[in-house]
Amino acid sequence: MEQQPIKSNQAERGQQSTLVGIVVNIGLVLVKGTAGWFGNSYALLADAMESATDIVTSIFVWVGLRTAARAPDQNHPFGHGKAEPLAAIVVAVALVGAAILIAVQSIGNIRVPHKIPAPFTLVVLAGVVIVKEVLFRRVTKVGAEVDSSAVKADAWHHRSDAITSLTAFVGISIALIGGPGYESADDWAALLASAFIIYNAYHIFRPSFGEIMDETPPGDWQGELRAIALTVPQVRGIDKYRVRKTGFEYFIDLHVQVPGELTVGQGHAIAHAVKAAVLRAKPAVYDVLVHIEPA
């Protein structure tokens, strides 16, 4: 049975989604950075910093998706799919780094008195929250459709940016309403945002690391594979199974039970039939290795 082609269209959709995010983030860095500087808001400057890391990590995601879509070669017989979760891990690490930097700067600003942020910064932040939330939902949808941990990670990076902007909005609002003595509310908001960013980093890191470690993907794989295999005549059941995800594809090892009196040729034909049935039922599966066991 000839293997299915690499899902290049999935990679292309993921790359297009990532490029849109990069363009949007470039604009947001300029807007937030300028507004934060002239509006005396460190929370907004921290938000701009977070958007800047979005740009860098999105580039890593884009490169990871391009690499993952490459066909198998002599040195990489299982393809280059691991580049995709690796890109997601890079995003998670970058998020942690950005969160730590924001937290350190926030603590420093809390200890040093400064001016209350300008009211116009609230308008900027409200716009940012809307843009980022829309972008998060759009990229999340693409990530789910192409089943890409890197694209999903990129989406959560947008969500973390939206959260940073929302906490900054709240902090600046408190500072403006409270007046003198509440200047540091802006900085406390940035500090709180750093904690949210670290949480999102873990949310990105955990499934990507599991994929790198060949962790069994979520879902009732055993039940589904058994049902598919039993559609092939002479198959009595499944003894063992192993599933691992590599990039956009899944690789399956399947131990199928058949009557012990069958010939080698008959067992070989059944193995091919089971493989074909799995590939038809699950288009995301790239290859199936079937081992015949006597029932």
TrEMBL record:
Membrane topology: Multi-pass membrane protein
Coiled coil: none
Annotated ranges, domain Cation efflux protein transmembrane: 19-213
First-listed, main subcellular location of the protein, grouped into a coarse class: membrane
InterPro entries: Cation_efflux, Cation_efflux_CTD, Cation_efflux_CTD_sf, Cation_efflux_TM, Cation_efflux_TMD_sf, CDF_Transporter
The keyword Transmembrane appears for this protein: yes
Residue spans crossing the bilayer: 20-38, 44-65, 86-104, 116-135, 162-182, 188-205
Name of the featured protein: Cation diffusion facilitator family transporter
The organism of origin for this protein: Spirosoma flavum
Lineage: Bacteria, Pseudomonadati, Bacteroidota, Cytophagia, Cytophagales
